[in-house]
Amino acid sequence: MLTPRQQHCLRGIGITRWQERSSVVPMTDEFPVSDSLQNPDVLPASSPAEPQVGEHAPVSKPVVQPVAPPTQQQFDVSDWPHLLDSIEACRNCALADSCTRKVPGKGFEQADLMIIGEAPGHEEDLQGKPFVGRAGQLLDKMMMAIDLDPKKVYITNILKCRPPNNRDPRPEEIQACSQFLRAQIALIKPKVIFSVGRISAQNLLQNSTPVGKLRGIQHVLPATDIPLLVTYHPAYLLRNPAEKARVWQDLKTLRRLLNHAAD
Ligand code: URA
Fold first, then answer.
1. Under CATH, which number does the domain 74-262 receive?
2. 0.85 exceeded by pTM
3. Out of 131, 157, 218, 223, which could bridge 31 as a Cys pair, Cβ 3.0 to 4.6 Å?
């Protein structure tokens, strides 16, 4: 049964009809398993649309994370004060000059859950904090719907600077920022990573598989043993509210995975 608070939160994110877990998801801690998602070329041409949570479906294999090329300045990211100073000082790509403020991340530095989005938008660029605009408000409601306090989560992005006009991040910008995200993950040591949106998911998993095929599956962050789940970006949900039902499935999987990790 959903608690009245959960029902309130679900209404808040726009889900007015939902199915109880028992009618949708088998009561099991098992997650979908597969091995072919790293390389989209090996996906069968007629791969099933989106595996349902709890069915047998793929788990992706880790691949080696790229390291920054030697031309980029390597910063001291060994602890939080150095990491934050380093992000502030970084001029490894042109976005450092066009952004208003650096947006390192927000939340609890010992969080069990780390949420990773794409890049700061307009509001985030002004405030220096990730996910503070409309998408961020929806993300908070998504957390609360599964009884997670957004302040107990750590939230960051692939990029720490806003790309002009919210254009997609470029590979060299992602590369330039990657030492900071790797350091954040190493310092937080999250039990679970929740990757929101295509840019986040494809870069973390080092593939080009559409989000619709990456969600509903338990991945592992390459070169680590950290479980990683993928879902749609909240900004996409604001434009496509019909997808909220799928995201609710992803949130329930996330809740189970966190419960499992806490055991
Ligand atoms: N979208 C993102 O991916 N990150 C933010 O911080 C805000 C919007």
1. 3.40.470.10
2. no
3. 218
